């Protein structure tokens, strides 16, 4: 039985993933901690009610140290000394610059970088003691292939410059955890879930959120030492050699 904690889980991929985990047997997901700044929404209440106690909302604003400490203490009491098995850093924000990177403002870059990288670091480091107590010790960071330096020319028409920069930085943060904590039995990896039709991805994205959710869940269940330090791309049949910029071939994405 594994325990999962998902940040940014009040909507989009995070909520969809929490919902999918709640449908799994308890032998796969015994507890699912649904983390968000706002956990008082009708859809969260409905999911919690249907889960028979397996989905647990956790109110957290990682910008506030007291909120972060309280969340860690709360999760610690609920896992009862068994630790946390899987941390999914899903929180993310995207802003479009408009035009070339020279138009990127310090405010835009700082805001996006802070949410996508700094808060990922704060949450991961805070929950590290509970992950040490867990049996799986998985850190999964939701990234994007638009943050691939190698694929920079492919996504040159995308003007979400701060988002691309922040995801490249998140990938390096992931690698640092993979290197530093490998000897303790940790597995840290980055995963691109595809361009999904969520509030962040927009209505014209490639894939329904359910498709990305299914693939992310597959990777989370399969994750182990062979995943450590990798940047993974989901697999969607028919998208392996798509003519556009996005290809979902299930292979390691280039850094």
TrEMBL record:
SUPFAM superfamilies: NAD(P)-binding Rossmann-fold domains. InterPro entries: Fungal_SecMetab_SDRs, NAD(P)-bd_dom_sf, SDR_fam. Belongs to the short-chain dehydrogenases/reductases (SDR) family. This is Short chain oxidoreductase.
């Amino acid at each position: 039985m594994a325990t999962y904690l998902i940040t940014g889980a009040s909507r989009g991929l995070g909520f969809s993933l929490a919902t999918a985990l709640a449908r799994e047997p308890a032998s796969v997901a015994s507890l699912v901690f649904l983390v968000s700044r706002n956990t008082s929404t009708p859809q969260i209440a409905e999911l919690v009610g249907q889960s028979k106690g397996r989905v647990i909302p956790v109110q957290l604003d990682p910008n506030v140290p007291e909120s972060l400490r309280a969340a860690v203490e709360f999760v610690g009491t609920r896992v009862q000394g068994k630790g946390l098995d899987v941390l999914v850093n899903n929180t993310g924000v995207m802003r479009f610059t408009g035009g070339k990177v020279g138009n990127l403002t310090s405010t835009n870059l700082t805001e996006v970088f802070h949410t996508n990288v700094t808060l990922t670091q704060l949450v991961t480091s805070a929950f590290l003691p509970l992950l040490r107590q867990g049996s799986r010790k998985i850190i999964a960071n939701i990234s994007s292939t638009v943050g691939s330096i190698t694929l920079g020319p492919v996504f040159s028409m995308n003007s979400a410059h701060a988002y691309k920069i922040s995801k490249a930085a998140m990938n390096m943060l992931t690698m640092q955890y993979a290197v530093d904590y490998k000897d303790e039995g940790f597995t840290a990896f980055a995963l691109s879930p595809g361009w999904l039709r969520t509030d962040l991805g927009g209505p014209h994205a490639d894939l329904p959120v359910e498709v990305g959710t299914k693939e992310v869940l597959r990777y989370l269940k399969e994750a182990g030492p062979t995943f450590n330090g990798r940047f993974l791309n989901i697999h969607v049949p028919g998208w392996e050699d798509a003519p556009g910029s996005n290809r979902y071939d299930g292979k390691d994405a280039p850094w």
